[in-house]
Specification:
Helix content: 55-70%
CATH superfamily of the domain at 87-290: MetI-like
Number of helices: 14
Radius of gyration: 27 Å
Strand content: under 5%
CATH architecture of the domain at 87-290: Orthogonal Bundle
């Protein structure tokens, strides 16, 4: 006589399986929180150490380098660094170069991505593949040909020698391409049927919808341009025309390093980037999430 075993009803999950799933989810959340905390400490500890060192006297640093709480704290190193070094000029140069790089990168890369998505012409996919191949090229490999190119154009020692290489960003093209490709084709076709030109579709239809991508590209370009070191070091020769990273590198070139003044200058140099990131971190996350980059 056959025995019939009743199967659990569809859509129900045994309590044991639910318990295992809950335990697995809690373990994963704990592991993720631990990893995030460790990475945060890796980045936070050097920043806190630099801040504490900038507040200590040089004599106390030399006598007790590993004891941050010994001696009195003061702001003398910040006053000395601001009065001795041309930090104001370095701030202005970095801000001008970073702002121009953001403007040109957003305009040029968005136009390139718009043409790759909406226009039809031969070799479109080959051009896009070449642009993406630029992601695999290290920046150091382009230093020599770019230097020879800008020397022939008599642009060495000017802002444009630093701005122009920051315009052609394969990452920015990829971000805009991913976002523009997600825009419904019917929207572009409706604008074309209404008689709108490609230029009008670009700046009145597509670009307003690309605000998250614009924010992400602008912020990441600003941070990258502000932190650039090798290329500005080669093309900006005068002291007052240098940027913050290049100028700060010259503070440790002497035989006797003033640790407090050097750390104070570093803290002053990263304050704008820290403020930009803290104020616009939501736009960065939103832009990266909406463009599909994980």
């Amino acid at each position: 006589m056959a025995t019939v075993v009743a199967e659990p009803a569809a859509g129900t999950t045994p309590k044991r399986e639910r318990g295992h799933q809950d335990q697995g989810g809690k373990a994963f959340n704990r592991l993720a929180a631990t990893c995030v905390t460790l990475f945060a400490l890796i980045w936070l500890v050097p920043l806190v150490w630099a801040l504490i060192t900038s507040l200590r006297p040089n004599e106390d640093i030399a006598a007790h380098p590993m004891t941050p709480w010994s001696g009195g704290w003061n702001l003398d190193a910040y006053k000395y660094a601001w009065d001795t070094y041309p930090l104001g000029y370095w701030y202005i140069n970095s801000f001008i170069i970073s702002t121009l790089s953001v403007i040109f990168a957003v305009v040029v890369c968005s136009m390139v991505a718009f043409a790759l998505v909406n226009l039809r012409y031969r070799g479109k996919y080959a051009i896009f593949a070449i642009i993406l191949a630029g992601l695999m090229l290290p920046t150091e490999a382009l230093v020599l040909p770019q230097f020879m190119e800008f020397r022939a154009l008599h642009l060495l020692g000017t802002y444009w020698a630093v701005v122009f290489p920051s315009v052609a960003l394969p990452v920015a093209v990829f971000v805009f391409h991913s976002f523009i490709k997600a825009i419904p084709v019917a929207l572009v076709e409706a604008a074309r049927l209404d008689g709108a030109s490609w230029w009008r579709i670009y700046y009145q239809v597509v670009m307003p919808l690309c605000r998250p991508a614009i924010s992400a590209v602008a912020i990441l370009t600003f941070i990258t341009s502000w932190n650039a070191f090798l290329w500005p070091l080669l093309v900006l020769t005068q002291t007052k025309s240098q940027t913050i990273p290049v100028g700060l590198s010259g503070l440790i070139g002497g035989s006797a390093i003033q640790y407090a003044e050097t750390m104070a200058s570093c803290i002053l140099g990263i304050l704008p980037l820290l403020a930009v990131f803290l104020l616009l971190q939501r736009q960065i996350a939103q832009g990266v999430a909406n463009t599909g980059i994980k």
